[in-house]
Every structure is written in C-alpha cells, then in structure tokens.
Amino acid sequence: MSSEPGLWVWRHPRPEGAQGLCVGSGCDLPVHWRRAKRLARRIQARARRERLAQRVVCSPLRRCAEVGRWLQRWGWQLAVDPALRELDFGAWEARPWHAIDKSEIDAWVQDFVDYAPGGGESLQALLARAANWSAPSGTQIVISHGGWMLARRWLIEHGRQTPPSAASWPRPPDYGQCWQIGSTQGK
Fold first, then answer.
1. What residue ranges define each of the domains in the chain, with the CATH number in brackets?
2. CB under 8 Å to 171, separation ≥6 — which residues?
3. CA dist., res. 154 & res. 163, Å (int)
4. Cβ burial, residue 36 (10 Å; 0-12/13-18/19+)
5. Measured between alpha carbons, how far is 36 from 88 in angstroms, rounded to an integer?
6. Measured between alpha carbons, how far is 93 from 143 in angstroms, rounded to an integer?
7. pLDDT tens, 61-105?
8. In this structure, how many other beta carbons lie within 10 angstroms of the beta carbon of residue 41?
9. How far is the CA of 111 from the CAs of 42, 98, 106, 123, in angstroms?
C-alpha cells in the first residue's frame, strides 16, 4: 500500500437543523457562520504547524464548502470535488430517523453494502467513490463528511475484499474532527 502521509481530512461542523434527521448528500444544510469560521481557523493553525500548503479541497455541500470559503477569503486555493459528498439517502433525506419505516432500515442492515437506503446510493457506491478519489496535486487538506471519511478509512484498514457489515461499521468522527488518512492504493 502506498501512502499519502500528509492527507488531513476534516469533518464539517455541525449543520443547522440536523438533530434527529437523516442527513446525506441530498440534504444541503447550512452551518452557522461562526462554526464554519472556527473550523477554518483550526485548519489554518494546523496547516501552519505542519507546514502544509494553503490548498484545500472540499465537498460541494454547504456544510463543507462554507468552511472552504473562509479559507479562500484568507488567500487559500479552494477546489470543490463532488466525489467527497456524503452518502445519498434518497427518499430518507431530511426525514426524522424515527419516521423511516423499520422494515426499510432492517433491509439496509441485512444488505448493508448493496442496499440503497431510500433508493439513493449504496455503501458500495460510496466505497468506490472513496477508493477512486485522489487529492489534487499539492493538496493535503480535505473537508468532507463522516460517511466519506469512514469509507476511506475502511478501505485503508480492511481493503476492498472485506465488505463491512452494519455491526462492523464504526461510528463517524465528531463534527470538526480531523483524521490523517492515507491512500487506498493496493488495497
């Protein structure tokens, strides 16, 4: 496995109005400007400490892009990449989790990798997006989503040949958390 030793991936800040809802790529919730600016400051400080280039790539969803725009205002190069989006939950998007029929959730749990929740995107599709993604040249900082980060990390730790189950799928990182994530090449 080759490594991208300096790839720092940040999860976006907590979006407005997300409490109790199924939120994926089809639910483009905003982030309060203070939370976006605060995370941008943390990213900027980490970049200084680690001597990273002032380049960032982020998901086009507002909860990521708003952080990227703060960095851009401060002179950073910003690239937006749709491959960094969260899983698409289709008809489940923006619905309260308790309002989604239990039989649908059970079907997803039973076929965790290939089932497309709400008719959206399967975990297999997200894993493929995460596996095929590579940072633009000179970019070491990424702003993305918990699902994408989990998919990328799963591939690095388990490879493409070991499919996750609902029971083995880890919890997402906290909002605003940073993971150093490497390459999926060779896995």
1. 8-180 (3.40.50.1240)
2. none
3. 9
4. buried
5. 23
6. 21
7. 999 999 999 999 999 999 999 999 999 999 999 999 999 999 999
8. 14
9. 38, 20, 9, 10
